[in-house]
Amino acid sequence: MTQAQATCTADPDFIASSERQGFSSRLGFVLAAAGSAVGLGNIWGFPTQVAQNGGAAFILMYLVMVAILAYPMLVAELTIGRMSKKNPMDALMSLSDKPHWKLIGKISGVTGILVVSLILSFYGIVSGWLMAFMGEPVARLAGMDGFADWLVGFSVSRNLITMAVFMVLTVLIVRSGVTDGVERWSKRLMPSLFILLMALAGYIATLPGAEEGLRMYFVPDLSKIFDPSLMVSAMGQAFFSLSLGTCAIMAYGSYLSQEENISSIAGMVAGLDTGVAILAGILIIPAMTIAQANGVEIYAADGSLLSSDALVFSVLPSLFHSMGDLGEYVAFAFFTLLTIAALTSSISMLEAPVNTACEKLNQPRGRMALLVGASIALISTIIILNFGALFGFVITLTTVYAQPMLALVFGLLLMWVASRNKVLQELKSGNPDMEQGLFWKIWPWYVKFVCPVLMLAVFLG
């Protein structure tokens, strides 16, 4: 282990540890990795995509994309991380001893770190909105209507302050380290998220008008299922939701115990993530139809979704306000749920560049968490000050295009550049019978040949 790795994994008091930190248990890793995957992509993005793209038709295509593209790539990124026990940049460079492949690995790692930083820059803005909407019902109940109006009003000052508060929370968790920060808070936040999500979905399902939403959610419009735009959206959503192509999962993989079965762990993470996305749809889509029954406009005359990017900030608050005082409590619970989901993802996004920075620069974790967090907050500030030009552009560039393409590059580097025997030995460390199993007979060739063809076909379509 290098001195940089020891320094990076030290506690915030800058005491060097004798060995690289890791997750203390399988549960800790699964909850942290699922927390990375479970976020606004599930609870904000997924239901919005369902509403825009033929209801259950999008769900079917999303499930297909998770199974045939996202899951194989998830296994690849976890394998790269654990095989090297290094930061994402060094992990990709270590796949080959040849200088040109090392250079390509370095470029890919740097690009991945830049992409995850850009994603966190807009993620921090949206998460700040969530915190503001979480505080609004509390302010109303306290009689602070002026402050409540400021919290839900779109202004530069509101956006800057709430973004900064959210980024501070993220930095404080990440600077505490893997075990004391990322794992500890994942164990606290993820169960809270599951409980709140199930409770809210159960409550919304009892309200008049929910049946129509559930029908739209579970009955597919098969005429749209092979629409190229739907397929691209489903692929982008699957990769965004599972944090692929961002180096976040790779960083987490570097902390994974050698005794764990990577293919099994990846299945647990993908399953939890998909389950939360589907459960979030059971909450959001019926809530939309209930709001529509109460006179809230959701769809335009041409059938397109109004304010799709701000669905949870426009449609749902209107529904909550129509419930009277009870709605304030429901609104608080709902936006608390979203804030928790956002925080579990943001800590994984910050972990990747922080891990890389402190190992490459031989600097303490606490200092690098503050520096990297401040740098990303600066990018967020630039986006806020140029919102119309940059916000949508950054989202589309990173989540729709960069993430799937980077995930593909990571998978291809593992399969085409790294030694096949080295990859097999890594997978066998957690599953001694891997070589005789069906997974090993299919997965390497599938990632090497089939995934690139499928992804290019979707993009070309």
TrEMBL record:
<keyword id="KW-0813">Transport</keyword>
<dbReference type="Pfam" id="PF00209">
    <property type="entry name" value="SNF"/>
</dbReference>
<protein>
    <submittedName>
        <fullName>Sodium-dependent transporter</fullName>
    </submittedName>
</protein>
<feature type="transmembrane region" description="Helical">
    <location>
        <begin position="401"/>
        <end position="418"/>
    </location>
</feature>
<dbReference type="InterPro" id="IPR000175">
    <property type="entry name" value="Na/ntran_symport"/>
</dbReference>
<feature type="transmembrane region" description="Helical">
    <location>
        <begin position="58"/>
        <end position="80"/>
    </location>
</feature>
<feature type="transmembrane region" description="Helical">
    <location>
        <begin position="438"/>
        <end position="460"/>
    </location>
</feature>
<feature type="transmembrane region" description="Helical">
    <location>
        <begin position="329"/>
        <end position="350"/>
    </location>
</feature>
<feature type="transmembrane region" description="Helical">
    <location>
        <begin position="150"/>
        <end position="173"/>
    </location>
</feature>
<keyword id="KW-0472">Membrane</keyword>
<feature type="transmembrane region" description="Helical">
    <location>
        <begin position="265"/>
        <end position="285"/>
    </location>
</feature>
<feature type="transmembrane region" description="Helical">
    <location>
        <begin position="27"/>
        <end position="46"/>
    </location>
</feature>
<feature type="transmembrane region" description="Helical">
    <location>
        <begin position="370"/>
        <end position="395"/>
    </location>
</feature>
<dbReference type="InterPro" id="IPR047218">
    <property type="entry name" value="YocR/YhdH-like"/>
</dbReference>
<feature type="transmembrane region" description="Helical">
    <location>
        <begin position="230"/>
        <end position="253"/>
    </location>
</feature>
<feature type="transmembrane region" description="Helical">
    <location>
        <begin position="193"/>
        <end position="210"/>
    </location>
</feature>
<feature type="transmembrane region" description="Helical">
    <location>
        <begin position="103"/>
        <end position="130"/>
    </location>
</feature>
<keyword id="KW-1133">Transmembrane helix</keyword>
<dbReference type="InterPro" id="IPR037272">
    <property type="entry name" value="SNS_sf"/>
</dbReference>
<keyword id="KW-0812">Transmembrane</keyword>
